Amino acid sequence: MGSRFDEMRIFSGNGNRDLALAICEKIGMPLSDATVTKFINDNIFVKLNETVREKDVFVIQALGSPLSDNIMELLIMLDACKRASAGRVTAVIPYFAYGRTDKKDQPRVPITARMFADMIQVAGAQQVITLDLHAQQIQGFFNIPVNEISGLSLLVRYFENKGWDDAIVVSPDMGFAKRARNIAEELGVPLAIAEKRRIQNLKRTDGPLTSPEIMNLIGDVADKRCILVDDEIATGGSILEVAQLLVDQGAKEVYAACVHPVFVGQAVQKLKKGPFAEVVTTDTLPLSAEKRWPGLTVLTISSLIAEVIQRIHSGVSVDTIFQLRHHPALG
């Protein structure tokens, strides 16, 4: 099926230029030329150095550190495309920032994810491609099409190829349990779930009515290879705590896996020292040499995003990628 647009253009901010180049290589076209820089007064400047009039434009921008600069680059690039009469503008956001602020969980706080969605639309995006939102209801914050694709499928294929018969998938909390269950079903292995809870002490009158958090494990991990999966690893504190619990419960080996390697603060040091046989992630966010170590495996999502871009450009269904169990884009 042919596209209603004559040509496609792919631009990139500075958030993850290597990923953008890899995507273009998979598609078989050059990365479109744009100037994205910053003036001495800290203002960001963007100029598209080729025409986009009536073209199908994709703007790739990963939202890692420096976050505010990367967000502004994305918004300004979208605005530049809109004002240059692009036929359609798609924001490709491998990692969607502020995904944890999807609701009011205490008084007088914002819903930043909703505000950010509004900003993307006002800037000129007519649709969005993203991976593994922290909260899937964020799709509903947009009034434009959102194509949320899953990098978890790459993790499934990676561990499937190991051919283990003693593996178990572990969800680090109740919130990720549904997605962890789907991964376990894909791999054909059992599921375990870690949970935290505070024990109430209604008899106390001289202090807090709850004790410190107690970590429990639902499922048997003894003598099993545990695949501890989450959508992202930020500080590494929570996943390390669960990993230690698995070791204490007799796990043979512990593997950590996530789509988004946020890795802030002392996360890398914690993961290096943790009881992990291997940490597996993807390149939705750039990882400098300082954030890589021999125990880290990075899978590229470039083929998956390239396939989605080509299908959207051609007017072909995106969902069918995930219905084909061994589609080349999934590795």
Largest sheet: 7 strands, mixed
CATH architecture of the largest domain: 3-Layer(aba) Sandwich
Radius of gyration: 21 Å
Taken together, the total number of domains comes to 2
In spatial order, strands of the major sheet run 10-9-8-11-12-13-14
Count of DSSP helices? 9
Q: Would you give the CATH topology of the largest domain? A: Rossmann fold
**Alpha carbon gap, first and last residue:** 25 Å
Structural class: alpha/beta
CATH class of the largest domain reads Alpha Beta
Q: Uncertain regions: pLDDT < 50 for 5+ in a row? A: 208-212
* Shape designation: globular
- Mean pLDDT, to the nearest integer, reads 91
Helix/strand layout:
Elements: E1 8-12, H1 17-27, E2 34-38, E3 44-48, E4 56-60, H2 67-83, E5 88-93, H3 112-123, E6 127-131, E7 146-149, H4 152-160, E8 167-171, H5 177-187, E9 191-200, E10 210-218, E11 225-233, H6 237-248, E12 253-261, H7 267-273, E13 278-282, E14 296-299, H8 302-314, H9 320-323
Helix pairs in contact: 1-8, 2-3
Structure description:
- With 331 residues, the protein is α/β, with parallel strands linked by helices.
- The chain has 2 domains: 8-150 and 302-330, Rossmann fold, CATH 3.40.50.2020; 153-299, Rossmann fold.
- It is built from 9 helices and 14 strands.
- The protein has helices at 17-27, 67-83, 112-123, 152-160, 177-187, 237-248, 267-273, 302-314, 320-323, and strands at 8-12, 34-38, 44-48, 56-60, 88-93, 127-131, 146-149, 167-171, 191-200, 210-218, 225-233, 253-261, 278-282, 296-299.
- The strands form 3 sheets. It has a 7-stranded mixed beta sheet with strand order 10-9-8-11-12-13-14. The protein has a 5-stranded parallel beta sheet with strand order 1-4-5-6-7, with helices on both faces. A two-stranded antiparallel ribbon has the order 2-3.
- α2 (67-83) packs parallel to α3.
- The longest helix is centred in the N-terminal third of the chain and has 17 residues, at 67-83.
- The protein is globular and about 60 Å long.
